[in-house]
Design a protein that fits this description.
- By secondary structure, the protein is mostly helical.
- It has one domain.
- The chain contains four helices and two strands, in the order ββαααα.
- The protein has a two-stranded antiparallel sheet.
- Helix 1 runs antiparallel to helix 4.
- The longest helix has 10 residues.
- It is globular.
């Protein structure tokens, strides 16, 4: 399908200089503001029929992937509470709560 307008055309687009504040997007897992980079994550993996996406920090998504299998994520579904009942999930969220929204770090390999 063709674009209605070229993405390179400066054209006559409405000005974004409103005094309206930007909407703050919070992370699905840790509930902190997301910062500059937002990762759109499937809480229920696509391979398991998941279609919905939620905003997350990259570090939060990496932690989910390292600590949970697709089957476990499917069982928890869209509920964060099930993930936070896991010791590794709770420990991570408590640790990252004090960090800057744009904080990144390397995550240990999968612990399955």
């Amino acid at each position: 399908m063709a674009r209605k307008h070229s993405k390179y055309d400066p054209g006559d687009h409405p000005s974004q200089e409103d005094d309206a504040p930007e909407a703050v997007v919070t992370c699905w897992l840790c509930s902190r503001p997301t910062g500059k980079t937002i990762v759109w994550h499937h809480p229920i993996p696509k391979s398991r029929g998941g279609r919905d996406v939620v905003p997350m920090h990259a570090i939060c998504q990496q932690t989910l992937i390292a600590n949970f299998t697709n089957s476990e994520l499917q069982r928890h579904g869209m509920e964060v509470a099930g993930i936070l009942e896991n010791a590794n999930g709770r420990k991570f969220v408590d640790w990252v709560a004090k960090k800057d929204p744009d904080f990144t770090a390397t995550i240990a390999k999968k612990q399955r």
